[in-house]
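Q: What would this chain look like folded?
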Amino acid sequence: PFSGYFADIENGIGVGNLLSEGLRIGKVVDLSAVKVDVFLGGNEVQSLSQGSKAVIKTADREIVGRVDSIALTSDRNTGSFKVVVVAENPYGSEIKSGFAADVMIELNANKSVILIPASAVIEIGIDEWVYVIEDNKAKLRKVKTGTVSGNKVEIVNGLDAGEPVVTTGFKSLSDGAEVNAFFAEAEGGTE
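A: My prediction, written as C-alpha cells:
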C-alpha cells in the first residue's frame, strides 16, 4: 500500500455501484517521485553513469534528480538506449503522470574529448573523414564522430588531441596535396 492520487476511473464506475473483489475501478498514482524515460544514442550513453546528475524541466518547474538505470542493450528498432532518470517531486499534483519533460544530464566530467568544427568533417558515403595536416600535406583520414555541441563535433576515434585539421578550403583539396597551413587560435586551443 502507498498513498497517492486516485486517477483513471474506469467507465461505468460511479456512486452507488456494487463492486466485487478484484474489480479494477481505477488506479492510484504516487506523485512523490517522478520517473522519466530518455532514449539516447550509443555515443551519449558512453558519457553517462548510474547516479549522474540530471535536471528535469516540466510544467514550468525544475527538479534535480539522477540517472537511475542505463539499458545494457539498444532497442532493436531504433538503436537507442533507454536511460531512466528519477527525482523526488516537491510539487505534488502540479506535476502530473504522463507530462512531457526536457531532461539535461550531466556528462562524466573525467572524460576528455576532442572537439573540432563540425564543418571540417566530410561525409563520403556512410563514412566521415577529415583532412589532417602532416608535413605540410593534407592527408585524408577516416574518423568516428560523437556528440554534436553547437558548431563543434566530438571525434571519438581517428584523431589525436592537438593534431591540426583543415577547417576551410578543403573542398578543392585532394589526399596528399601540399598546403600552406596557418593556425587560428580557437576557444580551448589551436584550431
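Confidence is low (pLDDT under 50) at residues 187-191.
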